[in-house]
Amino acid sequence: MNEQNENSLPLHGLKVIEMGQLIAGPFASKMLGEFGAEVIKIEPPGVGDPLRKWRKLKDGTSLWWHVQSRNKQSLTLDLKAAEAQEIVRQLVAEADVVVENFRPGTLEEWGLGWDELSALNPRLIMLRISGYGQTGPYRDLPGFGVIGEAMGGLRHLTGYPGQPPVRVGVSIGDSLSSLYGVIGVLLALQERNRSGKGQEIDVALYESVFGMMESLVPEYDAFGYVREPAGSALPGITPSNSYLCKDGAYVLIAGNGDSIYKRLMNLIGRQDLAEDPRFAHNDGRAQHAALIDAAIGEWTIKHSRAEVIEALKEAHVPAGYPYTAADIVKDPHYLARQMIEQVQTFAGPLKVPGILPKLSRTPGRIGTGGPQLGEHTEDVLAGLGLSDEQVQGLRERGII
């Protein structure tokens, strides 16, 4: 992206200091960086963010790192040291946003809490993501995404009846919190345009998950109904399920619109079910989900997945199948919408997910992969006015 386009990005000129690690905080600042914010990521000297060693490694560094930390600068600081804390205060004095996801109270112990930092910079917006939030009886408990998913209600619903609860497969609790966090930052920036004042944004992992729980609580309040896991089905919405095909593959069919349902039943040769007045609307179909699912399954098992998908496409019935990574990277629709991009990293060229959301006039960008540990330390400190001798002294004392 050339300089003119770089300057046109929506968040160009925004300075973000990231003091988080692993997923929730860094995912939020990643999104801000993709749309033009300058993100300075603070990492502990010597080891860095633990995510550098998570999942599959190439040349000693996580491949995930090049997604989560793209477009960021890496500054190493031992935040337990008074000199490092003073450097943070200097950075914050010039910053727009601080992102952190330590356990509540940690930054306060270092003299870097909201009260201290907002006093230095009244325009500061501080995004704080934690397991249980900054207040309440559970605030001091450690909380990772898995715990937030459990407390928020998601883990109870994931899996099949009578079997142990399973995870979604990705760190969905952390990522949902990141998205809420970014929304909070954008809202606070908009309000700051009017008031000139920043504010603190308090995001809890369990609340981010709970916010996705649809009618879970109203159904319990009104009827005492406790929603239970339902495997691949969508309880109360019929038909919407996965069905086995002749070649052993599964297809997902969402025939739950009234007119779509009729087209689906006519396609599979079940005109009797298509015209049955009991099944004209979803509430009636939901009462007989097993009957309808069985009819669809009797049809899919006679055909290969490709045949089923093609027939459903012709009938304008929403359908698909569970994509693997191999399916994703070669899918023409993914490629046409630039959802698979190749970037140059210090570990070589690498395919990574594209940018979301898609803006028509000022789309985001991937400038670089994740930085090497401390790659930008000297540049950042020089920008604060520290001399080469001061930087060398900090390095010798293990502060950077």
Short description:
The protein has helices spanning 3-8, 24-34, 65-68, 82-93, 106-109, 114-120, 145-151, 154-157, 172-195, 205-210, 216-223, 258-267, 271-275, 282-286, 289-300, 305-314, 325-330, 332-336, 377-383, 388-396; strands at residues 15-18, 38-43, 57-58, 61-62, 72-76, 97-100, 125-130, 200-204, 240-244, 250-254, 319-320, 340-345, 348-353. With 400 residues, the chain is of the alpha/beta class.
What are the key terms here?
single chain, 400 residues, alpha/beta, Rossmann fold, formyl-coa transferase, domain 3, 2 domains, six-stranded parallel sheet, three-stranded antiparallel sheet, 20 helices, 13 strands, 14% strand
DSSP strand count? 13
Radius of gyration: 25 Å
Count of separate structural domains: 2
Query: Helicity level, as a percent range?
Result: 40-55%
Q: Outline the biggest β-sheet.
A: 6 strands, parallel
Percentage of residues in DSSP E strands: 5-15%
Which stretches are poorly predicted, pLDDT < 50 over at least 5 residues?
none
Query: Alpha-carbon distance between the termini?
Result: 32 Å
Bulk shape: elongated
Per the CATH scheme, the topology name of the largest domain is Rossmann fold
Mean pLDDT: 95
Helix count? 20
Structural class: alpha/beta
Q: Give the CATH architecture of the largest domain.
A: 3-Layer(aba) Sandwich
List the strand order in the largest sheet: 5-2-1-6-7-8
Give the name of the CATH superfamily of the largest domain. Answer: Crotonobetainyl-coa:carnitine coa-transferase, domain 1
CATH class of the largest domain: Alpha Beta
InterPro entries: CoA-transferase_III_domain (IPR050483), CoA-Trfase_fam_III (IPR003673), CoA-Trfase_III_dom3_sf (IPR044855), CoA-Trfase_III_dom_1_sf (IPR023606)
Organism: Stutzerimonas zhaodongensis
Protein name: CoA transferase
Keywords: Transferase
